[in-house]
Amino acid sequence: MSVFKHSRQSSGGHRPVQAGGGRSRAGSAPVAGLSPGLRAVGRGVAGNSTGRFENQTRVPLDDGWDIEEDDRILRTELSFETPRSVISYNKSPDIPFDRSINPYRGCEHGCVYCFARPGHCYLGMSAGLDFETRLIARPEAPQVLARELRAKRYNVAPIAIGTYTDPYQPVEREQRIMRAILQVLSDFNHPVQITTKGSLVERDIDILAPMAERGLVAVGVSLTTMDARLSRNLEPRAPAPRRRLEMIRNLAAAGIPTRAMIAPVIPALTDHEIETLLEQAAGAGASHAVFILLRLPHEVAPLFQSWLQSHHPDAASRVMGRLSDMRGGKAYDADFAQRMSGTGPFAQLIAARFSLACKRYGLTQGRETLRSDLFACPPEVGDQLSLF
Q1: Most buried in the list 56, 108, 364, 366, measured by CB within 10 Å?
Q2: Helices (H), the chain
Q3: Topology of domain 77-360, per CATH?
Q4: What tens digit of pLDDT does each residue of 329-368 get?
Q5: What is the largest CA-CA distance in the chain?
Q6: Domain ranges for the chain
Q7: pTM for the whole thing?
């Protein structure tokens, strides 16, 4: 039997309504901060560290009772929230879009390097296992989006989806929130840029292909490595590398502009694969490509370093040392001028290699240009004009 010292963690007004599991894709291990009888199977990180905004921690304690507990697996928990608005705006000079939508908070793909993990700390949860097991869905996002697009003050510009958490993570199969959002955007002839590593995007080709014909959509597929074993450890519940190439092939065959997202580039671990990834992506039909250097903000840095020590102890010091060389002597630097690509000779070398490989394989660097001139509000139900 175990006793817990609880941290001050709130649900943030979310309603937990569903719990589910996922198919195991990796080994399991005891998890810090959870009951000794609870195992994390197929997860990206091996701990649930306290978020930086919490003033208490939660740790398991043995109360002395020798009662055996059932061996249980940590399952994914889903909560719902009703958003007041769904379009988030930013003014970051290094981001090629000024607005985005997130159908979900948290991501079950469990990518250990995910820069979005610290966002869960604002909800009173951990950037560790909470981020990939305590998900929040926004089922009313499509209706809220339609309302925002109809506002007289709204000025159209491409919306980015999937730049924070993946809209095609496993929970989307049942929730279908992303599909409903796409239908709204299609009805309004609104341009959208999608980034994903989830094969579920193929389900929505019937919406995406007609939008592509009107110049309204492009899809970026994240590629990290062609090493299936490394990918499984880095991104335990995401599709395998070969499957992502198949996604590019299927999207391109449907006439949907497809971009290879070489992200993150991990120095001394995956950076040697840049040319291979671009060659494979171009062969599958990608037309554009971008790369992003590994980003380790806030809680992500210790999580990633712990992962390195567990999976690549011999390379850990070299990876972090090379990253430090490209981050001004730190694990991460959030300065707009270099947070996406780094600075210094090693960063310049990566950028030069990427540029040369794009030219070699006929890929255009950057994102696709989408049309905004077709935007129009469709008639609402009951609108008198809809009778004519």
Answers
A1: 108
A2: 129-133, 141-150, 172-175, 177-187, 205-213, 228-234, 241-253, 274-284, 300-311, 313-326, 345-360
A3: TIM Barrel (3.20.20)
A4: 999 999 998 999 999 999 999 999 999 999 999 999 999 9
A5: 77
A6: 77-360
A7: 0.86
